[in-house]
What does this fold into?
Amino acid sequence: MSFEALASPLAVDGDRPHSVPAPEVPTDAAFEELVAIGAALSADEVDLDRVLALVVERASALLHTDVAWIARFEHDSAEVRVHVSHGTLQPDFDRMKVPFGQGLGGTVLDLRRTLVITDYPSYEHDTEPFVRDVMAREGVTSVMCAPMSRGAHMVGALYVANRRSTRFSSSHASLLSTLAAQASIALENRRLYHEQLAKMRLLEETFEIHHRLGEAAVSDLGVEGVLRTLAGLTGRVLRLEQNRVPPFVAAVAADGTPPSDEACAVLATIVPIALHGRQVGHISVYGVDPLRELETNALTHGATVLTLELMKHEAAHEAEWRLRGELLEDLLASSTPPDDALLARAHRVGLDLDAPAQMLVVEAEPEVLGRLEAHARRPRRGGTVLVASRPAHLLIATIGTPGSDLVASVERELAGARALMGVSSRGHDFAAALREAQACVAFARRSPARPAVVEHEGLGALRFMLDAGEPDQSRSLVRERLGRVADYDRRMGTSLLETLRAYLECDGHHPSVARRCHVHRSTVKYRLGRLAELLPSPLTGAEAKFELLLAFRLLELFRARNEDLLAMPAPGTTSLEVEPFRGASPRNRPGSD
It folds into this structure.
């Protein structure tokens, strides 16, 4: 049987003068060698290097050549590199390599056909100078090269060569192709074996990572403990940033210690952490080396474990704040001092009811209140914070340490939002503190200046009126001092009450009063003249100014209590008492301002 049907050689050049025909190979001898190589491939323990050495030795013997070698195709570098040789003399022979598509090996793999070169020194092809030099020193004259492949997968090339000019026939090329196919089996099996071995090792290591991270998840190590475990498994410096539970930022090296700035100089990748379909944080992975598949698996699983840890802590955090909110509602509804059951509940959340408390009441839109509630729940040094929600309001109690820092941070959080906040004084009666804070909110809502924050202690002497039972004298003062002016404004459509307040608060400076009331100075003079007739005392006296200012402040305070003292006519006032201003010019008569 001829081997010509097994391959289609490509003769590149013609006969060289004085070339010698290569001896024909007996068919039975060829089959014996193929059987021997096949038996070596079928052995239980395949020694790849021994099998490939056997192939090149048998190829050289069968084809009566001086030299034979196999070059493997390396997929990573796309190069054909000598792997094993027989009969060579040059030490550099096994260092030869050519890129895919160049040289003999690169060309036969590209063409997928056997090359027969009778005169290699004169063969024109793109080959590295180093390879040509080694082949020249080796004395290679005639050479055959067959591609080694398994389906579409390129494996390498099998070469035989003589140092004398030799004419190889198509049967020689076909036999070389058959031997190349046998060698391909060995190399491809070795590749597949190593791939499977690598996959098995990856699965084993991945299982170990999942096992370790699973143990970390059930061991209640916390967010930092899980991060330390993940850093040890990957051998990387990791930095976790998330906005759910403290600590919100944590960084750890592979040995569990805080990393240096140099170790965080190169960012390798970022792994997101999602909770309820929203990204709540990420893991920054540092290091100059690219991530291995095992590291990627570990980080992916680690992110899942951290998500579960955040969910667990968030659920516990939410339950704790719900209990605190219920405790606050019960404290607001309880008598003073609280009973033993309430004291025991307070003790379980670390609340010292012997320490003074302060109440904050915020009135705003639901979105603002939600953002503010999350802000109030953030961990703080010292003291205890309780939060409760009511329609359109948020109640915040600070117990233990002064709440000035919390008040300031809430003010910053409310900056730019449409919101009002009342702040009580510090004491031990939660219900009284709530009333104070609520009254401050009402005061801010009804005050003409409409301040965003009103503090009970900042009201001065007026704060004692917030809880007064029957402040009849205060009501009388407001009506006596301001009632006739309010009646005149209501009946005549004027703004004398506004002008009077501006006059008092601007210390009688007419230009300032005119700017504040958006009128001409002459109008201010007219209004002051009319006020002189309506007021019970002249505006020039210090005592009269004090009583009027006090009346305005009390007016705001009562309005904060939903009581407008000037809504009804002042006692004893009738429409007959309202007279035009005698002596006024036509342009300054009532109604012309």
Q: What stands out?
A: The chain has four domains: 4-194, 220-316, 336-464, 472-588. The radius of gyration is 48 Å. The chain is about 45% helix and 20% strand.
